[in-house]
Amino acid sequence: MVDQSFLHDGLDFMAGKVGGIGSIPLTAPTPCREWELGALLNHVIATTTLLSRIAAGHPVEAEHLAPAATAATAFTGEPEQAFAKAAALARETFADPGGWERTVAMPTGAEFPGAVLAKLIALDAVAHGWDIARATGQDDTLPAPLVDTAMAFATDFVRPEVRGTTIGHQVHVGPAATKTERFVAFLGRQP
């Protein structure tokens, strides 16, 4: 039996933070210094959609997955509904346990089990859910089981060669840092 909780919990966390944006303008700054709130939402919605499409066997051009491209891919409608649509596609794509085990070819030529794509969607949702929470004054504390799973996957998956490109350089935090602070610092954010 495939444990799908990381995917669902990550998408739920992000959905809650998107739902809490309220009247904050999409031009508000975020912890992702290069992206305002609207661009960050574009990125999460597009990335969730594209990775789900790849996992389902649909062709996606590599350049469409680049962070600059996903941030520039404007979502339509209200943020909450746009993210809900992307999350529903991810949930549907990975509802079949066989999809978690199937080898998926990325546009870059790399191959991963479907489970890795599901976890990448979850990791992106958790990290950027924190960004949205921080940018909009919401509680940015990650629930303990979610932050533990996200950190375990991130430390296993993030390679040094992606630091400074798609993922920031790790920020050092002291021994009193919370699990959430250690997680976001690992991904290059200042807690």
From TrEMBL:
> What SUPFAM superfamilies does the entry give?
DinB/YfiT-like putative metalloenzymes (SSF109854)
Gene3D superfamilies per the UniProt record, alphabetical: dinb family like domain
Signal peptide range in chain numbering: none
- All copies of the Mycothiol-dependent maleylpyruvate isomerase metal-binding domain together span 8-133
Identify the InterPro entries for this entry: CHP03086 (IPR017520), DinB/YfiT-like (IPR034660), Maleyloyr_isom (IPR017517), MDMPI_metal-binding (IPR024344)
* UniProt name for this protein: TIGR03086 family metal-binding protein
Q: Which organism is it from?
A: Salinactinospora qingdaonensis
